[in-house]
Specification:
single chain; 174 residues; alpha+beta; Immunoglobulin-like; 2 domains; flat; disordered N terminus
């Protein structure tokens, strides 16, 4: 009878061990799957510099800026998560008292650049405004860059985990 109890206990312990091992394997498999389809975690930083002669001075060290000076804004997007950020976009603001410098928007990896003239409500590669013609009709014409309020960068490819993208644009102090 004692021998049967030892066998029953051994079988029971083996069964418990197998169940525990199976549960541990399932948890590990879920963790691996979560890593494979993890979430992006984007950290965005904005830094600026002002062109002074031949030098570029960081805005935090430049003191005040003066009319006519050009500010170079840099947006850095770092994916610190463990999944790709799909359909990634970032937007830079054109501060009041400045005017966007035409042709200054650049970005890595072929980002599509668009602009807003309504504080980010809508974007277009070339925003337009209505202009009354001499004959009284209204025609849509390209908006002057002085009306631009936002610059949007949109990448076709996902921002992969542990990757960084940069985008730049310039504004002139009024």
């Amino acid at each position: 009878m004692n021998t049967l109890n030892k066998r029953s206990r051994a079988a029971l312990l083996a069964a418990v061990a197998l169940v525990a091992l199976g549960a541990a394997a399932a948890v590990a498999q879920k963790q691996l799957a979560a890593r494979a389809t993890g979430r992006p975690e984007i950290k965005v930083t904005l830094s600026g510099a002002v062109a002074r002669g031949e030098d570029s001075v960081a805005l935090d060290k430049a003191g005040s800026v003066h009319p006519g000076e050009v500010l170079d804004w840099k947006i850095t997007s770092a994916n610190e998560g463990d999944g790709a950020a799909r359909q990634y976009k970032t937007v830079g603001h054109v501060p009041q008292g400045t005017s966007f410098v035409a042709g200054s928007a650049t970005a890595e990896y072929g980002a599509e650049v668009s602009y807003s003239i309504d504080n980010g409500k809508s974007f277009a590669a070339q925003p337009t405004v209505e202009e009354k013609q001499a004959d009284g009709t209204v025609k849509r014409v390209p908006a002057p860059v002085s009306m631009y309020t936002e610059v949007r960068y949109e990448w076709a490819d996902p921002l992969a985990a542990s990757s960084t993208l940069t985008a730049n644009y310039k504004v002139r102090v009024k």
